[in-house]
Amino acid sequence: MANFADNRVSLAGYGSIVGTARSAVSGGACLVDVAGIRITARVIAGLTVAAGDALLITRSLSTYFVQAVLQANPNTPPAPPEQGPDETPEVPSGDDAPDPKPTITGGTLLILPVATSTWRDGRWRTDVGSPTNTDTYQGRYSGSAHGRNTGVAFYGSRPRSIEGAKVTKATLRLRRLSGGDFAARAPTLRLVTQSTPQFNEPTLNETGAGPRLKPNQSISKFEIPKSWAQAMVDGTRGGIAMTVNSDSPYLKFAGRASWSAAWALTISWRRGS
Question: How far is 242 from 138, CA to CA, in rounded Å?
Fold first, then answer.
């Protein structure tokens, strides 16, 4: 029978230890598991050992000796002592421990648009710059022979990086540029299905009012409906447009090329379990 005594961890210094028999006695020894270590232990002559028995073991140098077979614990606990006439049973005090608090994670996700584009006359405008870095326009310039403009900020796949989270707040960073009249005007905002520019006209959905800004005025935290950002996190919407069903107000807002923070979307979110 192989000796596994020193294969893993030394048990020296443990004194008397308790192990579990893994074999019957053969050749005066048996296999025993002690603290996850399998060893070979000599058995005192006349001692009967069966697999599964709890054994009391001692060690001398590198040799282990089975001293006794320990009795198993009783199947039922002993009866409590009888209560005397003047004794009062102990009553537990206090409420039960509260349920553990759920683990909640959350944070803030800053999303810069992957493209800012303006759709007009059946195509993305290139006369004002790259079709993915243009400023965003709304309406039609007075006297222009061209059609109405729809400016769009596309956010790509980044909102879905927190898919499954609950949006608690969402804000936009916007800057109005010179264009149109000099009064404070608010764009009409629409949610867009697509997350990047396609060859066809963007699909417009939910509608809301944007911030009232004068030319060259900015706003760093314009709050949009939480449901809008939630739709982008869930993957059913991909961008935000500025558009109007009439020619006015004609507005021009900064895109990526003229302002690095243009249309930046900040989403506050939380996730609970």
Answer: 6
pTM for this model (two decimals): 0.64
C-alpha 144/C-alpha 179 separation (Å) is 13
Question: Tokens 């209560």, residue?
Answer: 83
In terms of phi and psi (left: phi > 0; alpha: psi -120 to 50; beta: otherwise), the region of 157 is alpha
- Could you give the domains of the chain? 17-70 (2.40.50.140), 106-272 (2.60.120)
d(CA 233, CA 195): 11
d(CA 246, CA 140): 8
Q: What is the 3-state secondary structure (H, E, C) of 165-232?
A: CEEEEEEEEEEECCCCCCCCECCEEEEECCCCCCCCCCCEEEEEECCCECCCCEEEEEECCHHHHHHH
Q: In 3D, which of 247, 40, 27 has the Cα closest to residue 141?
A: 247
**Among candidate residues 45, 69, 72, the one with its CA nearest the CA of residue 57:** 69
What digits encode the pLDDT tens for the residues 101-158? 667 799 999 999 999 999 999 999 999 999 999 999 999 999 899 999 999 999 999 9
